[in-house]
Structures are given as structure tokens and as C-alpha cells.
Write a structure and sequence with these properties.
alpha/beta; 18% strand; SAM-dependent methyltransferase
Length: 302
């Protein structure tokens, strides 16, 4: 990972909590155009891994165009949400009033509203994302069922009770004890916290994930301890590491295909794509070596 360290601009010094929130928000604001290019055009844009039931990519990525690869990534990202919905019993747990915490560009929020009729509060700390999510919700015809809220996950609105909170590859940015404490105040008794996240199994895996995504990965046990101290209990824990591993092959292949085919890229764009390519390749290696684990957790408030 020495080459990635040299190229990465991730902060290496300790920061105050409010500074961390601001930096992460700015990080995602700055990535907006790149996210739309890779995972768009929308309206349901996802920024998370995909689910590949056969544990293999259906494409021959070496011969595919960037558009072909992007379509496959998007199909399997939607597949991950459908898999999550099955695991979490979305038809009765995620069909009411829910929080989508760390909503990105709103793909998951729109998914829960369109597919399950949920009333969704889409929470983001990236101010520029809020109007984009609002626009996509209007485009999908669910403007009345999705509202965006720009705030820190540790300051979720006390306008509940909510039936559930969902966090798709976002909880790694949160102060987990404080987040669960806040959730205990906004969810109804018996409400669910549904988490899809990358968990660490060894230190190097944590370094790879944290360096590129500015996140603070943890073990499943770390989550369980934080949740239990706030009055939650773990009721579901599903490992999907092998079925998500092909995402990194497709993601790296898309980046390489763009670098090879798009002569209009600026030097800055090329540098960012080279960083992305190296990170994707490193993450794919860690996934296959067992250094990281992709899991679906569900906690219930006692």
C-alpha cells in the first residue's frame, strides 16, 4: 500500500469531531460529479458495493465498455438492496417511517420509498447532496415520501418515533456509541437498526478501507457492544463477503476502461482515477484474503 499512501490525500492527524464531520461532508460534496459519472445517471444512484449471488461477475470485464460495466454495477447494487430487504423483512420493518442515515445521493431512500412505500428521512452531512436527492425524489414521483435532512448522524431529529434506521456503508463514519444512544431516543420500542457495512477482521484490512474512504472501520463485536450499551440487541448477522467480492473487479475494470478510452480526461481526473484504480485493486485483494468482511446486521430496541 505504499504507492497508495503516496497518492492519497487522506488526513493522517487527529481531528476534532466537528472537523471530521465537516471534512467527510466536503469529501462527498467534492465527489458528486464523479459519483454520477460512475454510478449514474439516476435517479436511483447508489454508492456501495453490489451483490453477486454466484460470487462471480457476469461480464467479461476485459472486453466490456465502460457503459457495459456501469450497467452491470448498477444492477448488482440494486441487487444488494433487494438482498438486504429480504434479510431484514422490509415488507413489514422498512415500510413505515424510516431514517436513511448517510443517504449519499439518495438511491437507497428512493428504493425504500418506491419499493416498500416507506416515508423516508434521508440524512446526509454533504450539503450539496440534499437538493440532488430532492430532485431525484420528485423525478421518481415520491417527493412526498422522501425528505432530506442535512445533519450529523449523532444529532438525528427527535421528531419520532421512527420504525427503523438504515445505514448502507455509512456507519463507519459515525461515533458508534453516540449514534446508538441517539437511535435509542428516536426509534420506537422494537424498532430496527439495519446496517450493511464493511467490518474488519485484521489490521491491514482496516488500513486499506480507511485510507481511501476516510472512514473508521470496526469489528462486528465493536458494533454489538455499542448497541447493547444503548439498549439494542443483535438479532441478525449475515455474511455476504464472497457474494460482494466481484464488485471490486467490475469497479476496477470500469476505471481502467475509462482511463484507456477517454482522451478528454484532465491530468487531475487521470490522477484521481489512478488512485481509485489502485484502491479498488487493493480492496479486492483484501476481500479475497479475508482481511475485510461484508455483513448485514439488524439490531432491535428492547
Amino acid at each position: 500500500m505504499s504507492n497508495l499512501n503516496e497518492l492519497s490525500s487522506s488526513p493522517q492527524t487527529a481531528l476534532e469531531p466537528q472537523d471530521e464531520v465537516r471534512i467527510v461532508g466536503q469529501y462527498y460534496d467534492d465527489k458528486t460529479a464523479r459519483l454520477v459519472r460512475k454510478y449514474g445517471p439516476g435517479p436511483r444512484i447508489h454508492y456501495h458495493v453490489g451483490h453477486y449471488p454466484s460470487s462471480k461477475t457476469p461480464l467479461n470485464v476485459h472486453d466490456a465498455t465502460p457503459d457495459d460495466i456501469r450497467r452491470s454495477i448498477r444492477i448488482h447494487q440494486e441487487g444488494l438492496l433487494r438482498y438486504a430487504a429480504k434479510i431484514w423483512g422490509a415488507e413489514h420493518r422498512l415500510s413505515g417511517r424510516i431514517l436513511d442515515v448517510g443517504c449519499g445521493l439518495g438511491g437507497g431512500s428512493l428504493f425504500w420509498a418506491q419499493e416498500y412505500g416507506a416515508d423516508v428521512t434521508a440524512v446526509t452531512n454533504a450539503p450539496e447532496h440534499a437538493p440532488i436527492v430532492d430532485g431525484f425524489a420528485q423525478e421518481c414521483g415520491v417527493g412526498g415520501k422522501v425528505r432530506t435532512l442535512v445533519c450529523d448522524a449523532m444529532h438525528l431529529p427527535l421528531d419520532g418515533p421512527y420504525d427503523a434506521a438504515v445505514a448502507i456503508e455509512s456507519s463507519g463514519y459515525f461515533n458508534r456509541p453516540r449514534w446508538f444512544e441517539r437511535l435509542a431516543r428516536v426509534l420506537r420500542p422494537g424498532g430496527s437498526v439495519c446496517i450493511e457495512e464493511v467490518f474488519t477482521t485484521r489490521p491491514h484490512g482496516a488500513d486499506v478501507w480507511a485510507e481511501y474512504f476516510y472512514t473508521k472501520p470496526a469489528t462486528v463485536l465493536d458494533y454489538v457492544e455499542a448497541a447493547e450499551s444503548a439498549g439494542f440487541e443483535l438479532v441478525d448477522d449475515v455474511d455476504a463477503t464472497s457474494e460482494t467480492s466481484p464488485f471490486w473487479e467490475e469497479s476496477a475494470a470500469w476505471t481502467k476502461a475509462v482511463l484507456d478510452s477517454d482522451n478528454s480526461l484532465s491530468p487531475v481526473d487521470r490522477r484521481q482515477l489512478r488512485i481509485s484504480l489502485m484502491a479498488n485493486q487493493a480492496l479486492g485483494t483484501e476481500w479475497q484474503a479475508g482481511g475485510l468482511r461484508l455483513g448485514f446486521l439488524r439490531f432491535e430496541l428492547k
